[in-house]
Each structure stands twice: as structure tokens, then as C-alpha cells.
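User: Can you predict the 3D structure of Xaa-Pro aminopeptidase? Sequence below.
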Amino acid sequence: MVFDAYAARVERLRGILEDRGLDGFFVMVNEGLNWESAYYLSGYRGSSAAFLITKDEGILITDGRYMTQARSQCPFHVEDQGSRSLVEALADFVHATGMKRVGFEASRVFHATYLELSQRFRASLVDASDVMPTMRRFKDRAEANLIAEASRIAASAFLETLSLAGPGMTEKEFAAILEHKLILGGAEGGWGSHSFIVASGPRSAMPHGVATERAFGVGEWFTVDFGARYGGYVCDVTRNVAVGSIDPWAMDVYEVLIAAQDEAVKALASGERRAFEVDRRARSVVEEAGFGSLFTHGLGHGLGLEVHEAPRVSKTSPDELKDGDVITVEPGIYLEGRGGLRVEDDYLIGPEGPECLSAPLPKEFFVIR
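Assistant: Sure. Here are the predicted C-alpha cells for Xaa-Pro aminopeptidase:
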């Protein structure tokens, strides 16, 4: 990512601050938590920092472990917190600028950190937790290309892992080999904050069934929900794999899911922007096939630097889809005691219609023997 992109984002943020009557804004990274927002604005990817945006400059504050890294990644002014706590150093800079009202992400700081901020800050702290999700929701072409490259790497790694899989392999073994292949293929790794979902047999009825020691059995199928991270950005894809042969019931369900996903994509292509309506269009296909009560989650969600971002695509979502949104479209059907399936792909919303960023991975019911 070129430095100009970070400068443009900070300028966009300043416009938001002005509209809200704020003198500044900061994001904090604590033991790696919330690195995404700091990276989005400054380019810095260390595990401890505060990035302060004033009306005139950006200041990244971190400790001695990260100074060389910060200066190489961040185009803004970098300061060593020295012997001070991160909050103390941040408070000193806020006081020196004379700011009166400072926005921050209340939803992204620990309670103990908030108490220290309240104690040390002379300026008023104003919760602006919605600012970064709103900004990060829009993906430019460079960001979309990173997600597409993550998808290409993920597709290759998945197909390589399938070539090594067979009856008797455990869910954990499959997940471990898959992540190893992702890294060898050029990804930073998997999602990091979330484990891959590898759920076989009756366990596939759990939409979030993380991998266990259960072995793949002949005549069963397993569902794999996974992704790669590349350049900070992630993809999120789900495919289904039969062991030996495809169960006729599972094939029927799979065909319904493909039709439901296609209906959602048609809605997006037609210019439909109401998230709940896109969900309804896909859900109606599942309901007409008699599986309506077995589709137990929303149709999709935004993704980017995190696996789950704005907007939300569900039957209760108030969100309007916008150009620059990257969303998943992932209908699923789950029958307790028997199993479930899900088909998931990533789409960039644009003025010319949806673009499938996960297209490199064939959309088929795979079979291993």
C-alpha cells in the first residue's frame, strides 16, 4: 500500500471529525488487538501503539521494540513513548495540542484502559466507535485486489490439500495442512483471529463447527469454511467435500444452495441495494425447497481487514449496500443429526454489478477417495 493512500484516509477522517465538532481522534492497539484500524490509517502493523490524528498531523506513538518497524511502515510522525505508559504518552500529546474534544473507539479499548484514559486526559473523550467501521467499509480497487489475491492463494491451497486428503484424515489434520499450504503459497496465514471451520458427518450441521480429531468417514461429507490473509486483507470461502461418493440428500441440498446464491447475485446485479431484500431473495429459494427452517443465519457479512465487518446481510439488516462494499453470500442448510452444507463466495459491489473475488475456487461439490 503506497503512503499516499494512508494520507488520503487521514484527510477523509479529518472531514468526519470536523463535521462532528471533534478536535482529534485516536486508535489504540493493545497486545495486537485493533491492529486493523491502526494499519488502515497509518500502515503500522505492530502489536502496541496509539495513532493520534490532529487537525494538522498524525502521530504514531509506540515503544522501543517497534521504532524501526514503525518508521519503515508509517509515513507520519513516530514518537517513542519512553518510560511512560502508552496512555500517559498519548495524554501528553493531546494536552500539548490543546485539544478539547477527542474521539476514540470505546468499543475497542479495555475497561482498564478507559479508566486510565479518563484519569489522564484533560480533554473530553467522545465515543466515535462508528467512525472506523464506516470508513473501512468502502474498499478501493487496491483493497479489492488484495482480497482477490488472497482468494487465489486460498483456492490453490485448498485444491492442494484436497489432493492429500482421504478417508481417515481428521478434521484437525485437514485444517493444519490447509493453513500450511496457504503460507507456502504466499499468504500471511489464515484468519488469525478465527479458526477454520472443518466439520464432518453429523458435525457439519454446526455452522461454526471448528476442527476436531474426528476422522472423515466414507459416505460422509465435510464442510470447510476458510480463508487466506494477504497484504492484511482476508477472503472467506466455504466449500463442501464428499468422501467416496456424494450422498443424494446432500446433493439435493447443495443444488438448492447454489440456486439460492445465484438468486442473491441476480438481485445484486439488478441493482438491489437493500441488504434485507438480497437476503430475502436467497432465503425464498431455500423456503420453496422446503428447507426454510434449516437456514439459521444471515446470508452474509462484510469483510476486509477482518473476517466480519460492515455491512450485515440478513433478514433484519437495516444496511443499504453501497459501491465499494465487499460482502459474503453464504446460504446454508443444517439438519441436526444428519449434517449441513454451506456455499460461500465473496463479492465486490460496484456500479456495473457484483464482481466475484473468490472466483478462482471452482464452485462444485468436491469428492475425495
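The first strand starts at residue 24 and ends at 30. The mean pLDDT is 97.
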